[in-house]
What does this fold into?
Amino acid sequence: MYRRISEDLHQIKPGRLSSHCYLITADLNVLIDTGTAKDFPVLEEELKAIGLKPEDIDIVINTHEHFDHIGGNLYLQNHAIVMAHRFSAVKIVYGDDEVMMCRANGQKPIGCKIHVWLNNTDVIDLGSWFLKVLYTPGHTSGCICLYEPRRKILFSGDTLFASGTLSTIFKSGSLAEYFNSLRRLKTMKIDLLLPGHGRISRSVDEDIEKTIKNAIEKFPEAKYLTSMFEVSSCV
It folds into this structure.
């Protein structure tokens, strides 16, 4: 089902294994993440309920390379421009199943295209929306968040969740990079958190603090990383 967050922003959850997909209807129609390939028929129906066809999607942005965020690309990439961070893009284009986890979840790892390889601080100007790319590795090596500075909205993918829920650190990810990404997000003014899974949040500062605390409890080495980042921020 889709959820209307504002007049020009919707959240769609195509299926149990799929990530949330976020639809921005601005000067261009943008879909952030596309769920699994199996769930695309549901995504298509939800788009129709909102008043759009798949062919109306102009841009797709993947927050990272996991199967539950990129599966629908296959059905959109021939008419939409698909974007991802360059570290995600190389895995998606070459079908790195070890990282993408497609076959284990009944999805083919090959065939997806990435037309624009993004870098940290790139911007996507949609007129009434302005998305800034934040490179936030940790969960995987290619994770990004998308920040709308005027609305103070963060599309966080699997980097940050509500209520202090920890992200899983996968093989291509890094605990140190995860902490560094959380530290960077902590410095930002975020009024609305739109994560790849779970509930949305308007208590983002609290969410980040809880996430750091929970990570320290789970990973003893994280206490050293936190101290290191606090020292470096004072230099």
Summary: Helices lie at 40-50, 67-70, 86-93, 97-100, 175-186, 204-218, 222-234. The two ends are 48 Å apart (CA to CA). DSSP finds seven helices and twelve strands in the chain.
